[in-house]
Amino acid sequence: MRLSQISKLSALFATVAVQVTAVQFNVTVGGSTGLVFTPEFVNAQPGDVVFFTFKQKNHTVTQSTFDSPCQRSAGGFDSGFQPVPAENVDGPFPVARFAVPGTQPIWVYCRQANHCQQGMVFAVNPGEKFAAYKANAIASGNSTPPAVSSSLPPSPPTSTTVVASPPPTSTPTTGADHRVVVGGPGRLLFDPSTVTAQPGDTVTFEFHQKNHTATQSTFSDPCKPSVGGFNSGFNPVGDSATSFPTFTVPVNDTKAVWVYCAQPGHCSSGMVFAINAATNGTNTFDAFRAKAMGSASSGNTGPSSTGAGAPAPTTTNASAAGRADVQSITGLSMVFISLFLLL
Ligand SMILES: *[C@@H]1O[C@H](CO)[C@@H](O)[C@H](O)[C@H]1NC(C)=O
Ligand SMILES: *[C@@H]1O[C@H](CO)[C@@H](O)[C@H](O)[C@H]1NC(C)=O
Ligand SMILES: *[C@@H]1O[C@H](CO)[C@@H](O)[C@H](O)[C@H]1NC(C)=O
Ligand SMILES: *[C@@H]1O[C@H](CO)[C@@H](O)[C@H](O)[C@H]1NC(C)=O
Ligand SMILES: *[C@@H]1O[C@H](CO)[C@@H](O)[C@H](O)[C@H]1NC(C)=O
Ligand SMILES: *[C@@H]1O[C@H](CO)[C@@H](O)[C@H](O)[C@H]1NC(C)=O
């Protein structure tokens, strides 16, 4: 990395992580070292930040649990797939940023194919348990393929006998991923603006030009973050960007999910999105969008200065904002930074 890049990098980190005086951990995901995180774990304090840099191949940084190392945990963070072609050796590389919420262990894996079962795991504050976690991950390759989601309907009872080691299905079943482009040159919209999704599916927001969020709200208050809802945080993307940060949320049920961009002015310009909105009746997408555009009381004063990358609910209620920050940090608190700016 050239010196000029390093200074720009520092400037970028300084902008994004305004209040972070704490340690920055740098973790490489994949690349020439193979199917590993380098280093394999870090011991961090609350407020520290882990930067995951995705190198060659196509990996994810996904939260799991100690007991099920190769399964996404409910509410856990997930970077989505970050393909980096073999010929990209000098970068820029996608980077995921994770703010360490506390001292409790955080278990992480790559959910590409069977990378986890080959030991591609990572942890924050594993204590003495990292080796056991990794062994669990490798051992899970010899047992049943992971279930996708406990909310999926149970498989129908069959009369077949249970074999000791069922053959893995050709593709480990995951639901469909619905890709939504957020923004772009001269575009203040989510494209598509609605999707119909099944439980077990995922929705991946791909952030294009300008500086947007995908923030969950409610039908009744389209331009305010819902308590406990997901929030991608801001994803600034430069005009000449060719790679785009993503943010993936699991779809848990068929209930309508309402989403907006929290950049001031965007929601009231109609930059909203919905999953499984009704197509008739009162709570349609069009009604939601109209409400967003009429919303004078959006209370949208922009991000709070706590926005060191953790999703910052844009509420004016400071006490509620603080609480929501803490809640969301244990969930989807991963923010993507594209380093294309550094070229
Ligand atoms: C991570 O990288 C940043 C920026 O290059 C650097 O300032 C920091 O010291 C690194 N952290 C560690 C733990 O090496
Ligand atoms: C699904 O549930 C997880 C865990 O509670 C949550 O993080 C995620 O935001 C939910 N998805 C939606 C679309 O609400
Ligand atoms: C990355 O991996 C995912 C999951 O296997 C796959 O769907 C996607 O097409 C891959 N992307 C590239 C560019 O290879
Ligand atoms: C993105 O938008 C947020 C909220 O307005 C702002 O705080 C942040 O500085 C912006 N980032 C960039 C790189 O423009
Ligand atoms: C409203 O939509 C639901 C399904 O989306 C459908 O079952 C129902 O018949 C529709 N009602 C009317 C009045 O169109
Ligand atoms: C702020 O949120 C708290 C807890 O939800 C609530 O009791 C209080 O009335 C709110 N204050 C304002 C000004 O909305």
Number of DSSP E strands: 21
The tally of helices reads: 4
Strand order of the largest sheet: 2-1-4-8-21
What distance separates the N and C termini?
10 Å
The SSE order reads HEEEEEEEEEEHEEEEEEEEEEHHE
User: What is the CA-atom radius of gyration, in angstroms?
Assistant: 20 Å
Which shape, going by the Cα principal axes? globular
Helix coverage percent: 10-25%
| Overall average residue pLDDT | 77
Percentage of β-strand residues: 15-25%
Structural class, please?
A: alpha+beta
Enumerate the spans where pLDDT stays under 50 for 5 or more consecutive residues: 14-20, 146-173, 296-333, 337-343
- How can the largest sheet be summarized? 5 strands, mixed
Q: Can you list the ligands bound to this structure?
A: 2-acetamido-2-deoxy-beta-D-glucopyranose
Quick description:
The protein is α+β, with helices and mostly antiparallel strands. It contains four helices and 21 strands. The protein has helices at residues 3-16, 130-140, 285-294, 318-330, and strands spanning 24-29, 37-38, 41-42, 49-54, 57-59, 62-64, 82-84, 94-99, 106-109, 121-124, 177-182, 190-191, 194-195, 202-207, 210-212, 215-217, 235-237, 246-250, 257-260, 272-275, 334-338.
